[in-house]
# Entry
Amino acid sequence: MARLQIREALRRALREEMLREPAVFLMGEEVAHYNGAYKVSQGLLDEFGPERVIDTPISEGGFAGLGIGAAMAGMRPVIEFMTWNFSLVAFDQVINTASKVYQMSGGQYRVPIVFRGPNGVAENLGSQHSTSVDSIYAHFPGLKVVTYADAEDACGLLKSAIRDDNPVCFLESELTYGVKGEVPDAEYLIPLGKARIRRPGTHLSLVTWGKQVATALAAAEALASQGIQAEVVDLRSLRPLDQDTLFSSISRTGRCVIIHEGYVFAGMGAEIAARIQEVCFDWLEAPVLRVASRDVNQPYASNLEKLVVPTWQRVVQAALRTMGRPVPPESELGA
# Structure
């Protein structure tokens, strides 16, 4: 096992797939000569040259469209958005073209393309760089939406995304690029659409994905000190959604708190909660609760940022509520 930063694990996945398949290329703003805005692509230009590691103008609609056309012609592009917030400039290309070409062409064209880059809140970037787009892209059939919580999953999931014959939205995080974790030395793939139980438990299920897995694990640790064993379910993939693992967890615990960084209104948590109550209603001992970002545009100041995003203390409060236990103020739960 190698111990890698998540940026290094992503780079390893890109490099291995570019070595394996000549049709794979990387394109985006500053991915080549600058070695990537977050240094994910460091060294790839030197190894593969400017025809396969391509710097673009600041024109997301342009290079997203170019990548889609290349994918339809038989290439396997990896398109880096400097932030998923900027993907909204290319929304028409991703939604009206990438997600629909296979259906509209009667199966004559596939679009094997990966759109990747940091999603959600980082630090002091303001609201135009802090949107969590999970529910936006998961809404549309034809797209797959995938994310990771550690270096092992980052590498294995990205490799699978690059090999997939469908467009994949691969959601990363600026806050976790430097986080280290163990990655197997041998080549491996992690299938898309398969959740992972991060911590087994019996009293309630904490369902989450991406960097909020760390929030859920911290909450589970705090709950354990009160005799509550929380199971942490890392969905990893929002489309396709691993309902079998999700529903199996609910059947064991009977309670559920969903944690995600998007907004609670029309967020992914609402979709997941609806599916749980449709299938698992007879197993539920309490209503499904959601912990999400507060319903405001993300502020710039650090102290205000912390008030908006989910915290392990808010997850503990929701867990206690669903267990029918007294709920102390957030300030009394510790830092």
The first helix runs from residue 6 to 20. The chain has two domains: 2-183, 196-333. The two ends are 33 Å apart (CA to CA).
